[in-house]
Amino acid sequence: MSSIGSLIIFIVVFVLLFWVIRQMKGNEQFDERQLLGRYKACRSGFFAFMIVIVLDAVLKLFGMTFYEDPLGELAAIFVAVLVFAGQAIRYDAFIALNTTFRYQLIVFIIVCLSQLVNAISQITSGTMIRDGRLTLSCLSILCVITFAAIIIMMLIHQRMTQEEA
Amino acid sequence: MKNLRLKSARAAKDYSQQQLADLTGVSRQTINAIEKGDYNPTIKLCLAICKALDKTLDELFWED
């Protein structure tokens, strides 16, 4: 019975996510060169994801994991997002034509700060390491690192673009 | 290869890269990339640029 409930929840969440993504896609405008850049960035992100998954599998195979189980797979998602963002920023394809740099930056700073508060509370409570292994509580730190890196890349790229203009 | 004809046509109209980008519905970086020869635009974008600059495709994009 609980498995049917989980399946229903999964389907509802999946449909909601799909709908949200469709809505976002409809609102964002990218030109043809940016779309090309995003495709390349997606490809890089996918390969980065696969590399981290393989590394995780190898570490598990040899029993050398220093983290609890789903953390490796979740870290792969963060790495993929980071690689996608880096490549998209490089191709000027990260920010849509109808979105401003400032708006995007503010959204990312808010996400980063909210996760930073979470991460600090995790560090102070000492739940990040259990039996000498990193726990799922490290996710908030991973999130902070990912978004901080994206913000830094955006700022550097914006600076370079302004100098070019 | 740089597209100097596009650059000069834009300058003749006294448009900045941003103004031309706004007229054609692309980003300033895309116009910059076309002028520098880093990006080959589609025929659709070529036509939009030609219309914005009152030029023909031959005048801006044809190479002998």
Spell out the key features of this protein:
heterodimer, A: about 160 residues, mainly alpha, 2 domains, about 80% helix, globular, B: about 60 residues, 434 Repressor (Amino-terminal Domain)
Describe the structure.
The complex is a heterodimer of chains A (165) and B (64). Chain A is an all-alpha fold and 165 residues long. Helix content of chain A is 78%, strand content 2%. Chain A has a two-stranded antiparallel ribbon. In chain A, helix 4 runs antiparallel to helix 5 (139-164). The longest helix of chain A is centred in the N-terminal third of the chain and has 30 residues, at 32-61. With 64 residues, chain B is an all-alpha fold. Chain B has a single domain (4-58), classed as lambda repressor-like DNA-binding domains (434 Repressor (Amino-terminal Domain), Orthogonal Bundle), CATH 1.10.260. Chain B is globular, with a radius of gyration of 10 Å. Classes of the chains: A mainly alpha (165), B mainly alpha (64). At the A-B interface, helix 2 of A face helix 3 of B.
Which spans of chain A have pLDDT < 50 for at least 5 consecutive residues? none
Oligomer: heterodimer
Largest sheet of chain A: 2 strands, antiparallel
Structural class of chain B: mainly alpha
What Rg of chain B, in angstroms, do the CA atoms define? 10 Å
CATH topology of chain B: 434 Repressor (Amino-terminal Domain)
Write the layout of secondary structure elements.
The complex is a heterodimer of chains A (165) and B (64).
Chain A (H helix, E strand, L loop, with lengths): L1 H26 L4 H30 L7 H22 L10 H25 L3 E2 L2 E2 L4 H26 L1
Antiparallel strand pairs in A: 1-2
Helix pairs in contact in A: 2-3, 3-5, 4-5
Chain B lengths: L3 H9 L4 H8 L3 H9 L6 H11 L3 H5 L3
Helix pairs in contact in B: 2-3
